[in-house]
Design a protein that fits this description.
- With 210 residues, this protein is α/β, with parallel strands linked by helices.
- The chain has a single domain, classed as Uracil-DNA glycosylase-like domain (Uracil-DNA Glycosylase, subunit E, 3-Layer(aba) Sandwich), CATH 3.40.470.
- It is built from seven helices and six strands.
- The protein has a six-stranded mixed sheet with strand order 1-3-2-4-6-5, with helices on both faces.
- A hairpin with a 2-residue loop joins strand 5 and strand 6.
- Helix 3 crosses helix 7.
- The radius of gyration is 17 Å and the shape is globular.
- The chain starts with a helix and ends with a helix.
Length: 210
């Protein structure tokens, strides 16, 4: 907490004129979302600056471009909270709500923040899929849903937990995107798969209710 506020005061030279958010960053998206996208934490000069998770950082550039290509967003970029971005069928959040030093949250920070994700999931009545960006989010989702033993993480990994399906994806970090560990087609693949699962479950439920 102290570090996120320190960063908001010191700022980065490129954002010297910004009034940093510098507080916990909530999730956002479509209240009727079928897909819950769970990331790691707000970036120090991304969500911690803008007040919207993944907005204004390189990981977000990859995420929102993929959400746009796969039909979950109305535009491929997000730079401020008032830039017109709208999500359709998706809700985006982070396992940890405050920017952590070196982007490495402590287990205590994760556990302190998980109730916020739990409440969002509870409020999203149409939810079918939790898409986890990275192993940290995969682990957090298992804790959220009390899944034991933990399923093995991998890109494209799937695990059924009651009415929800977990899907794993490599995180769109620069480390993964610069090295080619994660490519645009790979990211699009998991979002298309999330839509496929969500639509199939919705159709099945509709048939059962007839």
């Amino acid at each position: 907490m102290a570090w996120r506020e320190q960063i908001a005061l010191e700022k980065r030279a490129a954002f010297r004129d910004w009034d940093y958010w510098g507080r916990p960053v909530p999730g956002f998206g479509d209240p009727s979302a079928k897909v819950y996208v769970l990331g790691l934490a707000p970036a120090a000069h991304g969500g911690n600056r803008t007040g919207r998770v993944f907005t204004g950082d390189r990981s977000g550039d990859w995420l929102f471009a993929s959400l746009y290509r796969t039909g979950f967003a109305n535009q491929p970029t997000s730079v401020t909270v008032d830039d017109g971005l709208e999500l359709k069928g998706a809700f985006v959040a982070a396992s940890v709500r405050c920017a952590p030093p070196a982007n490495k949250p402590l287990p205590q920070e994760r556990d302190n923040c998980l109730p916020y994700a739990a409440e969002e999931i509870e409020l999203l009545k149409d939810l079918k899929v939790i898409l986890c960006l990275g192993s940290f989010a995969w682990d957090a989702a298992h804790r959220l849903l009390q899944i034991r033993p933990k399923a093995k993480f991998g890109h494209g990994a799937e695990h059924q937990a009651g009415d929800l399906t977990l899907i794993g994806s490599y995180h769109p970090s620069q480390q993964n995107t610069f090295t080619g560990k994660l490519t645009e087609p790979m990211l699009d693949q998991v979002f298309n798969r999330a839509r496929e699962i969500a639509d199939l479950q919705s159709a099945t439920r509709n048939l059962q209710s007839e």
